[in-house]
Amino acid sequence: MEKYEDESVSFEERAKDLAHRLTLEEKVYQTLHGAPAIDRLGIKAYNYWNEALHGVARAGVATVFPQSIGLAATFDEDFIEKVADCISTEGRAKFNMQQEYGDTDIYKGLTFWSPNVNIFRDPRWGRGHETFGEDPYLTSRLGIRFINGIQGHDKKYLKAAACAKHFAVHSGPEDERHSFNAIASKKDMRETYLPAFKACVKDADVEVVMGAYNRTNGEPCCGSKTLLVDILRKEWQFRGHVTSDCWAIKDFHEFHMVTNGPVESVALAMNNGCDLNCGNINGNLIKACEEGLITEEVIEQSVARLYTTRMKLGLFDDPKHVPFSDITYDVVDCKEHRMLNLEAAKKCICLLKNKDNILPLDKKELKTVGVIGPNANNRRALVGNYEGTASEYVTVLEGIQEYLGDDVRVMYSEGCHLCKDRVSGLATANDRIAEARAVAKASDVVIACFGLDPSLEGEEGDEGNEFASGDKPNINLPGIQSEVLRTIYETGTPIILVLLSGSALAVTWEDEHFPAIIQGWYPGAQGGRAIADILFGEANPEGKLPVTFYRTTEELPDFKDYSMKGRTYRYMENEALYPFGYGLSYSDYEISDVSADSDKISVDTNITVNASITNRGEHAGAETVQVYVKYIGEDVPNCQLKGLKKVMLNPGETKTVSFTLTPDSFGLYNEEGVKILNSGDYEIYVGTSQPDARSIALTGKTPVCIKASNAADAVVPE
Length: 718
Fold this sequence. Notes:
Layout lengths: L10 H10 L3 H6 L4 E2 L10 E2 L20 H6 L3 H24 L35 H16 L11 E5 L13 E2 L3 H8 L1 H8 L5 E4 L3 E2 L2 E2 L4 H11 L5 E3 L7 H4 L7 H10 L13 H6 L5 H17 L22 H14 L1 E5 L13 E5 L7 H4 L12 H9 L4 E5 L19 H10 L2 E7 L29 H9 L5 E6 L7 H6 L2 E4 L7 H9 L32 H4 L17 E8 L3 E2 L5 E9 L5 E11 L8 E10 L4 E8 L1 H4 L1 E2 L5 E3 L2 E8 L5 H7 L4 E7 L3 E2 L3
Parallel strand pairs: 3-5, 4-6, 5-8, 10-11, 10-12, 12-13, 13-14, 16-24
Antiparallel strand pairs: 1-2, 6-7, 9-14, 15-17, 17-20, 18-19, 18-23, 21-22, 22-25, 23-24
Helix pairs in contact: 1-12, 4-5, 5-7, 13-19, 15-19, 16-17
């Protein structure tokens, strides 16, 4: 038995032994995402490129969960891990089946290039719905638990390999991403753009990190010594492998203009620790080696890292010894997983307005319900991007029809095209307005389903994207949607606005005129059922906004400016339309008995905060207790989320929750990127939303404030 075949030897040693047996040419071609077989050593072909953002993607049937931004709106760490565990179970099932039939194609491996932990810093960014929102703490916590669910908790083997992407400082513009240079200060880097990646590496032991397309402070991310060597490998002690984004390495010479051609580009990338090339440019490593731009030892090191991952997945071991090899295909999109998906869709929905408690609707009091809007029967608005194929899709219209059955008449009108001024090409503009008015006028209540879908926000180059780049030009409802909504409002019929989108929209007029508004995100294949259950009180809304809803596009900073000044709830100066962390319920929750075990902060101690939460309403439901910290000083962030806990409560029930605030919770980065625990006063807020004036006005609840202080400036150990 050769050393690399010996299961008693560590994966790292086995991988080094195997990599050392390869010829230079063999080593080079093992660093492509589609790594060929090497029959003489029993190495099977393997394709590293697979996606599992909200379900196993692009390889046939799978459970299609709510898009990532919707999962973030659950504010539920435990549930996120449960969803990710389901995804990796289906991933293993599909892999086991595919291996049986010799299928090693793209999207058929166990290296899932998810999650996306970039910060959704600007609502115009097309790929923001792939993320967990705008907040580094929330993104960190959900990223950790998603990775835990994907990779599993076996002491020896990975269930699947997760990937934290796109490292780093990557959130638009999409049409310039191959050449764009994101300039970020050391403070913004450490305070906003790096924390989630650090958490994924140090707290979740993520197996893979993907570099971004763009440059960051002048260095192409997939060849950045600062990011990949100094921070990732040396500072954070990352031991997994790094992959490029797809065809990003050729951007070095074609668009970033930092090298003179492909030979220099591949050498720059791998010398700085980019082990895997998503693309085919790494064949130039042979010439780079011949020209002395890279050594064979460096190439071999990258191959060893890649083999270590495959060995952790059990791909070189007896399947009988790998605990996930017996997962069978019948679990894929099974009834249990579809029920979990339905639960996820319900948990992600955010109730933004509910004047006079018009919701939930009582079907016994209704004769006719109008369903109007381009997203009412739009499957694409269920799933977002990087999606699999569900065995069943339920649109909002279908969910309402199913719920109401024959008891209530459901009338439907598309209302308008999602973004064009007419539905039928030969018609005049606004060709569905008469129908929409008629439906509204004939109905007791209108469910208006408007917003966006992935054709309007997505990745650069995605087929069918209306704006080509993937980014949105503004945060208004597109096309003539606003005109149609104003027209049906004139009928006098009560309108419940259901927004399906992956990002915040400026629905200021709608907020002023409609009694109820729901943000449904891209709620997954079961989304229509979930929304119907929320509308009619079969489920209690519990979602919280993972992003800020701004009032206008005009108040946003320049899209290309990566300074955090004026961005997100932590730095914005204007009042939000709907703040980060906000979301209503059909229940009434009360926070009480808030206490801390100390009012003194130091770099040597933690503070434990306790609180009670009581359901004073008539509906069972779940609420998120949120903890925010604010340093009282000048030129510092607004309050910052530093703790969250989802609590399920029956009517009248009280539970106690506890939070541990570390020195890291209170520290702030200075301009040199050093985290300082500043002397002075701090405020700790415990509530069900932010402590800002707008959240208090919308909820009628003021978070409880605890005072604390620190005696002297000190550096926070990291």
